[in-house]
Amino acid sequence: MSASTPRQPKAPRTPKAPREPKSPRTPKARRPMPLGVRIIGGTILAAGVATVVVAGTLAPWPSIPHTPVSILTEPAAAAASATCTGPLLAAGRNALDAAEISVAADATAVGEGEQTLIPGITGGEFAVFTGPAGGGAAGAQTSSIVSADLTGFAASICPVPSFQSWLAVGSTTTGAADLIVLTNPGDVAATVDLTVFGSADPVLTPGGTGIILAPRSQQVVPLAGLVIGERDPMVRVSATGAPIVAAMQTAFTQTLEPVGIDVVAGAASASPVQIIPAVVVPEASATGAAPIEVRVLAPDANAIATITATRVGSGTPSATSTLTLVAGTTIKASLTDLSPGTYVVRVSSAPAPVTAPSDAAADATPPAPTATPSSAASTVPIDPTAPVQIVASAMTATAAPRDIGWFVAAPAVASETPVVTGPGATTTLVVAAGDEDATIVITEEGGAAPDERRVPAGGSVDIDVPAGTVWRLASDVPVHASVAYSGPGVLAATPVQASADQAPALRIFP
Description:
Blueprint: H1 35-58, E1 71-73, E2 80-83, E3 88-91, E4 101-105, E5 108-112, E6 114-119, E7 125-131, E8 138-146, E9 151-157, E10 164-167, E11 179-184, E12 190-197, E13 211-213, E14 217-222, E15 234-240, E16 245-254, E17 257-265, E18 273-281, E19 292-297, E20 303-311, E21 319-325, E22 330-335, E23 341-348, E24 370-371, E25 389-395, E26 404-408, E27 417-420, E28 426-433, E29 438-443, E30 451-455, E31 460-464, E32 470-475, E33 479-487, E34 490-495, E35 506-508
Antiparallel strand pairs: 1-35, 2-7, 3-4, 5-8, 6-7, 8-9, 10-15, 11-14, 11-16, 12-13, 12-15, 16-17, 18-23, 19-22, 19-25, 20-21, 20-23, 22-24, 25-26, 27-32, 28-31, 28-33, 29-30, 29-32, 33-34
């Protein structure tokens, strides 16, 4: 038996050498795209995007209707009030303090409602009449004075406080001494801004900006402190925080002789048609003065204003004038050759209304009035419905007693309205109709038998009413009314103003 041969151990495997990594492929160089092709491609892409955007804009988008939650509520009505200006004032009587304001003469106030006297300027008092919400408060005041620096008769309504009003009277030329009286009858402070319109651009001076008017107080601002040398200014009074009452006391002196005084409360807001129901031409006008001078302003847009002066009771104008108005600047027309009497002055920035013929006596041929030339070019764009603001003035004869009168537009009234006449002169109620025939009813204080009158469209009537009383005026359509005062050395008229109405309902969005 042969012996087996032992196995030889296997030799260990030799490890394989690691493979070397493959070198990355070198990319082929790309050939740049021609510039023209890129421009065309970009243009096509932009046009496509624009097409998608426009299509998305024009296509109807789905909408979900949603009505916001709201509540209709009527605020609690505040008590109605009418605030008088108070006594006549004088400036410059103190040789040591030319700016000092003093009381020159007291005023007598008559009104409807509960009367309260509140301390005013320099120890004077002003009256406030209050009544139930929605009406029941109205008033008027009168005063007269004959002194070395002031003379004349002044009558003024006691207006309902407001946030904006216009003082369209006075001037700052030589001989004028005009004072703006600001009154806050409420319990909340007010901030007042005064903007003066005149022959140039409107002026908002530092002295008339940010005037703080404390509750139940008065302040006086001399008109000459706002603008100098302005013959025909108009002042817009704007209040924030609380409504106020603004008035202008205007006095004039010729060759060191006082020739008249008046107090005029803030006029009605600007409107395309303005009516002054009672402008009085005295028996003998002052030498060199036109019987009626009418100051007109279009605050916001250029306009052409037609002015007519028609004797009360007539339907035929006694004088007509047309003015081109430049927005923001005042202009004046002088209506000459008017015989003594009471006239209705109408100013319209729209075509003049057609008035009904009347058999009452009137000037047969309207005289050609002289109008202050306008600085407007004939090519200025005209707004045929631009709102305008107006005031008229007149002066008595050169012989004493002297007086001047300022006459402002009256707002339209229809519902039963109180008519207050102040004491001290003969008083006449003048009612002017608009474009419709009106039937008016006048009721005496105490509810005596009413007096019913018909007023033709464009016409007017006058009714004698006792001084120092409260009457009621009602009409089936809106009319304009004023109380005219007359007598020796008396030249004044006050507009009839509607009582304060209850605040309208408010819609609240919580």
